[in-house]
Write a structure and sequence with these properties.
single chain; mainly alpha; 9 helices
Length: 259
């Protein structure tokens, strides 16, 4: 629903959300105050202020539910990237114990995998169009190379086993990274959040319909709080998108330049 929003700078997201909340608040205020005229005025003024507490609690619970999901996805994505980098680092270290030519080929394949991840996969993940159908060819080649290696000693046998395990761990971490790149808040949840915010604003306007200045102040404060919440959620909704998205620096640090 708002897939374009996380790709904007945080300040721009805040301005867009604030503008949207201003329009929504003004519209609700105009409608309620129009209704609170004439014969309906006394009935609307009689709405109990006790209505605001359950509305606030429902809104807070829903926001908490969304926040846990969003920041949980970010944590899982960061962990996947870190695990992939750790597994690749292990493969590089183990390659030093292989015959020189074989070790150099393993390091070259790891570098190519990292370059592909940075140059091709990261832009795709930012746009949520990455998928698992594409096999990381350099990583697959490294796995085949390690599997075909014929150990000449017990030490080489151990190195081969650990190298295969490291490459498989990198495969699994990459899979988790790609899967997490598809996470986000779906349209139903966004609509639910906006609907709850609108209902809460309407409740505030009804309770304070007898004093329009108080209604404007109360609605403005609540609308600003909602704008802050939506900005925070939108800025980190997609783990790899936008100004706060996860970058590939950790992977790029696995191999020193020129290796």
């Amino acid at each position: 629903m708002f897939d374009w929003l996380p790709n904007l700078p945080v300040v721009v997201i805040a301005l867009v959300v604030l503008a949207g909340m201003t329009l929504l608040t003004a519209a609700i205020y105009a409608v309620v105050m129009r209704l609170a005229e004439g014969e309906r005025a006394e009935a609307l003024k009689a709405v109990s202020p006790g209505l605001l507490s359950p509305m606030g609690i429902l809104f807070a619970l829903f926001v908490g539910f969304l926040a846990v999901g969003v920041w949980g996805n970010v944590d899982d994505a960061e962990e996947a990237v870190a695990d992939e980098a750790s597994a690749l680092r292990s493969a590089v270290i183990l390659s030093d114990d292989l015959p020189p030519e074989l070790g150099a080929r393993v390091r070259l394949l790891v570098r190519r995998h990292i370059e592909n991840a940075v140059n091709d996969e990261w832009p795709a993940m930012e746009e949520q169009r990455a998928d698992l159908t594409a096999i990381p060819v350099p990583l697959a080649d490294a796995l085949h190379l390690a599997g075909r290696f014929e150990p000449q000693s017990e030490a080489h046998t151990v190195v081969q086993r650990e190298l295969v395990a490291s490459i498989q761990a990198a495969f699994n971490a990459r899979r988790r990274r790609v899967v997490e790149s598809e996470s986000g808040i779906n349209a139903v949840k966004w609509l639910g959040l906006i609907a709850l915010a609108a209902l809460s604003l309407a409740a505030i306007a009804l309770v304070h319909s007898g004093n329009r200045t108080t209604a404007r102040v109360a609605m403005g404060v609540f609308a600003a709080a909602v704008a802050v919440v939506i900005t925070m959620l939108a800025a980190e909704e997609q783990p790899f998108a936008g100004q706060l998205g996860i970058d590939p620096d950790v992977l790029e640090q696995v191999l020193p330049r020129g290796s």
